[in-house]
Write a structure and sequence with these properties.
The complex is a heterotetramer, with 2 copies of chain A (332 residues) and 2 copies of chain B (338 residues). With 332 residues, chain A is α/β, with parallel strands linked by helices. Helix content of chain A is 36%, strand content 20%. Chain A is globular and about 55 Å long. Chain B is built from 13 helices and 8 strands. Chain B has a 6-stranded parallel β-sheet, with helices on both faces. Classes of the chains: A alpha/beta (332), B alpha/beta (338). At the B-D interface, loops of B face helix 9 of D. Bound molecules: thiamine diphosphate (TPP) (2 copies) and magnesium ion (2 copies). One magnesium ion binds next to strand 5 of chain B.
Chain lengths: 332, 338, 338, 332
């Protein structure tokens, strides 16, 4: 159910198409699933993930909303409490800052603070647009915020295959799930079986086996890490690449096991370095894998700056494949 | 803003016209008294006995709103309450012992002691779906519940309680607008008790007429005397019928007065001298009781017996709560995820 | 929502009554043409030349609003713009070369290339205080600016531009309410171009009458033909005078039409066929030009000369931008803190 | 100017009184300073910090607001842009989730994304109420979020002395400052000189010198760490206690210097462990002090749970002095 192998057909989809396929299947399969968000209907979604759904499923299931991020997440919570399985879309992760009270203070805590009485099976889909010259207010990526919101699951798919399988699981999950997509990946292609499959939430995936250096990469940087690994292997450096996929709950087992073997760790994530995912993961390694480390962990992340608009400056701002290669080299 | 013109009476005739018989009128009195005595006991447990801790917001003076609205509801209707929720829960027949156990932080509490007073009104078994401690955050959630009801072609109407202060939040605005465009079965019950903490409504709410805060979203909106359980009941009946027919949301601005402080520790030093006195004979229980006596629905003795019964119930609730265990700390991680 | 009844003319008489002479009328035409041609060039630089990247939102069709409002302002008045801000900035005399350099991400841009199109209208030297890319987030900020003006007994009035979609945000609601209770010198200019991205206003905004969205906060509110620069100008004059006298905020609902897509890449496939045609002869420039000709304020030749001049200016702006350097990446950390 | 010594008078104030004194002095000194927030006027502030100010300074300077957290922070930004020095109050840190778009997406980035054109000298005061049986929605502490918002300064005073000196600096600073107070400290007393003094933002303070173990403690836990240090010294364990005071920008120099000496680090903070301040600081040590470490860093923090109401459970949830003592013992 969860292996990422070719299904034989070799069917290639983009990340956006894979997401669309998961949504489509869930809408078909379960009448409780509804979508809500800005411009998901007649506009087809800002990035075309929901194109054609309004026509097929109607406005009762595919709800175009006003520009009301508080209400989008709030209404999704209520709909979940009322027996539906809403998938709310927040067009840019930046706008999630407007709804974060509903997501973090309400949805994430409801099961706990009601003593287990309430369950909120909902998904909030969003995406970050770093790398597309969208400027300081439309490119932000701050997944580590949600580590401070236990009760919420947080998923970050890195490939079309994973996007489909993880989104299906997110929709079927009984908990609120924040599903963070990556704009730069929407057009990337990969093998996606046409049948339904679900990938489990809360399992880190070893995307490449290796013995010399462990790279934990997030979202867009998984592909970069895999390509870096290929380059490094020609230099005789054997890299293991791990994609946590779900950062909350975070499955540290494969990461610790890997470090036990390699003794060296690079973490690569697009958020700002201070207080980002790299720091969070690094600190968990400190708890459970310190003795395995032969060298300090290298935490590759965006610098602690707002995101510059200028495409050239933005490029310099972002973690690159070259950065990953250099970091791995530096460790061995 | 001052008290409604000169109500000292309540709309008993309206109630009768709605087919509410004397037994049900007495039932309303009982609920209102249960709330009042429960809250008085809570106050005592905080301030005199020192057995309770943390924030708690009493419903004293506002009883006619919860009882009027919720008596008009069907049992499948769903309620979104808030941090001032004990009264909503009692009006909805949540057993007082579970509420009290929650206030004590015990395993038999409505939220197993994990919520506390501000979330104690969560009790799905009685249709008490949620209670947030964040002002007006329940509003969009209620709208979503109403969406679920409509989408699944259920008959449930959603009631959401919030205060006058909540009118100035983005959450209220966005939620009400959504209910308006989607024509959802939700009743916005604004309990205007004249204050948001220590700040008077008039100082913070820019509207010549507060009902406009519902009307602006094309939602039928009405200002009512929230201390008249009869008025509240019949207005709610109307709104419920409209919602059930698919005619969408209503906004009820219920004028009332917060007789006590904002929270149990607040001594209301900011209230103008004499202001509270103006509300004493508008007290919803005083008024209902007067009408009951005048209409010979019950005698002084009947009501005393009822009071004694309630006092006994509350005594038992406290005992129950005190004996209830705490959840084991090591069990807490079980409640984070389903 | 459809276009205003049957305007094909603009209120030139009103302008003259306000003492606007022919030179100033021609000045307004020039500004409107500058905006139009600038935006057309931007579109070309994106779609044909592929020299520009990232989101950009054109002001085509809405020129009369920025020009009408900002021509009525005093030079000390302050403007909060937004991501659709090129037009506001040009109307306010921000040199086009700085705007263009910003779009190119260059050091001579209004934001040194760190902001981009969506923030390009920031230029404090011309009173262009801020432009957010978040819908309606500028509203409470404008209200705070107005508070500063009032508190410091300055004479500045604050203008804040936002779209019809912004009406449904919590930020607008909370900001407008604050302006209402504090009676602040701020003019809320809602540019109702009939769409929020691909969603029509009517589908998302629950109000029988959109001006109620200002009136509900006790703010004097008016719906105007936003494609009539004369109407916009005289209404703004009124609102400015009221604000300057200490009589508080105004809300101007300016009806217009977004002739192009939401952003430069959007092909507006969702627009009903023929809808745009209905607006062609309501185009604010077409109308102003017609009146100018009819009133013999200028000849065809005068306007052609003006167009040539503008084209040359824009050409120079592009050249300037292309030659401007980029900020060095290593310098960026200097801009994080003052 | 910045030494925390007794001023001779031995005047003791509570943390709340010290804050009040700083605000009062700034209001007196600079007519551009205004306060805005819910119930700061006639109510005197939820925790009495602004008691009496409305009467003395009038409603133009002490502005009671509606329950409009978005507008409170938004209007503070605007007021700052317009030449004032607003101090906005968000009654509980939990409610900051409602205004976080204004704070993080607008205020924090304004100077940068305007290419240096704009400056926003404003302070947002807030407080966290952990330990007072306020339940899941009125006790949250998530300072690490703001590490992902470069452009914002973040201050966490731990004593009355620091509260006064740091608040004065925050108000005089030209950048937006988030000033996070601790409810459990409001009644704690300490020496506070009556004259004005400012403590620099961005300087970590060594609160106690020691050679065996370094403890970096935040806010409320600084006092606990100091008391733990006293207990530990009787066992012969010599503890150094460092209070960063400002977590952004974070002055790591004294921390790294200390670890160079002790080789052992305990971090104690009230936020949730995953992705919290402890993780953030630990990861910076990984960058600059890994080789000094003789043992893994111990990161003491709240567990990854929503905060339970029950006072007994809440107590079990919180980092205690005993936890600090045990952690230090474990390291030596
Ligand atoms: C968003 C938010 N802001 C502030 C508070 C603190 N607070 C709790 S209740 C309250 C006053 C609410 O007044 P109102 O809405 O009139 O309801 P009432 O308490 O009078 O029933 C305030 C300010 C909060 N809980 N949530
Ligand atoms: C809070 C927020 N939500 C969503 C967006 C994405 N978005 C950008 S512009 C826009 C439409 C805005 O419509 P309107 O307010 O009418 O202004 P217009 O673009 O028509 O000028 C949307 C949804 C955003 N920038 N900010
Ligand atoms: Mg109230
Ligand atoms: Mg629009």
């Amino acid at each position: 159910m969860s292996t990422s192998s070719d299904d034989g057909s070799g069917r290639q989809l983009t990340y956006a198409e894979a997401l669309r396929e998961a949504l489509y299947a869930e809408l078909k399969e379960d009448p409780a699933v509804i979508l809500m968000g800005e411009d998901i209907g007649s506009y087809g979604g800002a990035y075309r993930v929901t194109q054609g759904f309004l026509e097929e499923f109607g406005p009762q299931r595919v709800c175009d909303t006003p520009i009301s991020e508080i209400a989008i997440v709030g209404a999704a919570i209520g709909a979940a409490l009322g027996g539906l399985r809403p998938v709310a879309e927040i067009m840019y992760m930046d706008f999630l800052t407007i709804s974060v009270e509903q997501l973090v203070v309400e949805a994430a805590k409801m099961h706990f603070m009601s003593g287990g009485n309430l369950r909120v099976p909902m998904v909030v889909r969003t995406q970050y647009s770093l790398g597309r010259a969208h400027g300081a207010q439309h490119s932000q990526f701050f997944p580590s915020w949600f580590l401070q919101a236990p009760g919420l699951k947080v998923v970050l798919p890195s490939t079309p295959y994973d996007a489909k399988g993880l989104l299906k699981s997110a929709i079927k999950d009984e908990n609120p799930v924040l599903f963070i997509e990556c704009n730069l990946l929407y057009r990337s292609k990969g093998l996606v079986p046409s049948e339904g499959y679900a990938l489990p939430l809360g399992k880190s995936q070893v995307k490449r086996k290796g013995n010399d250096v462990t790279i934990v990469a997030i979202s867009r940087l998984v592909t970069e890490a895999l390509e870096a690994a290929t380059r490094l292997s020609s230099e005789g450096i054997d890299v293991e690449v791990i994609d946590p996929q779900t950062i909350q709950p975070l499955d540290m087992v494969p990461i610790i096991e890997s470090i036990e073997k390699t003794g060296r760790l690079v973490i690569a994530s697009d958020d700002s370095k201070s207080g980002g995912l790299g720091a969070a993961i690094s600190s968990k390694v400190m708890d459970d894998g310190f003795d395995y480390l032969d060298a300090p962990i290298i935490n590759l992340a965006s610098p602690d700056l707002p995101i510059p608009f200028s495409p050239m400056l933005e490029k310099a701002y972002m973690v690159s494949q070259d950065n990953i290669v250099s970091a791995a080299r530096q460790l061995v | 803003m001052t008290a409604p013109a000169s109500f000292t009476d309540i709309s008993i005739d309206k109630l009768r016209k709605e087919g509410v018989d004397d037994v049900r009128v007495m039932g309303m009195l009982r609920k209102m008294l249960e709330i009042r005595r429960f809250e008085e006991k809570v106050e005592e447990l905080y301030l005199v006995k020192g057995q309770l801790m943390g924030p708690s917001h009493l419903y004293i003076g506002q009883e006619a709103i919860a009882v009027g609205i919720l008596s008009a509801c069907a049992s499948n209707d769903l309620v979104i309450s808030n941090y001032r929720g004990h009264g909503h829960a009692i009006a909805r027949d949540v057993p007082m012992k579970y509420l009290m156990a929650e206030l004590y932080g015990r395993a038999d509490g409505t939220c197993k002691g994990l919520g506390g007073s501000m979330h104690s009104a969560i009790h799905p078994a009685k249709g008490m779906i949620f209670a947030s401690a964040i002002v007006a955050s329940g509003v969009p959630i209620a709208v979503g519940l109403a969406l679920a009801s409509k989408q699944q072609k259920k008959d449930d109407v959603i009631i959401v309680f919030f205060g006058d202060g909540g009118l100035n939040t983005g959450a209220f605005h966005e939620g009400a607008n959504l209910a308006g465009i989607w024509n959802l079965p939700v009743i916005f019950v604004c309990e205007n008790n004249q204050y948001a903490m220590g700040t008077s409504t008039a100082a913070t709410t820019a509207s010549a007429n507060l009902v406009d805060r519902g009307a602006v979203y094309d939602i039928p909106s009405k200002k009512i005397d929230g201390n008249d359980v009869g008025s509240v009941f019949v207005t709610a009946k109307d709104a419920l019928a409209r919602a059930r027919k698919g005619n969408g949301p209503s906004f009820l601005l219920c004028q009332t007065y917060r007789s006590k402080g904002h929270g149990v520790y607040d001594r209301s030093e900011y209230k103008p001298v004499g202001e509270a006195d103006g509300w004493i004979d508008r007290d919803p229980i005083v008024r209902l009781r007067k009408v009951i006596m005048e209409n010979r629905i019950a005698t002084d003795g009947d009501i005393s017996a009822m009071e004694a019964d309630i006092a006994a119930d509350i005594g038992k609730a406290v005992e129950f709560a005190q004996k209830s265990p705490e959840v084991d700390f090591r069990e807490l991680s079980k409640y984070v995820y389903v």
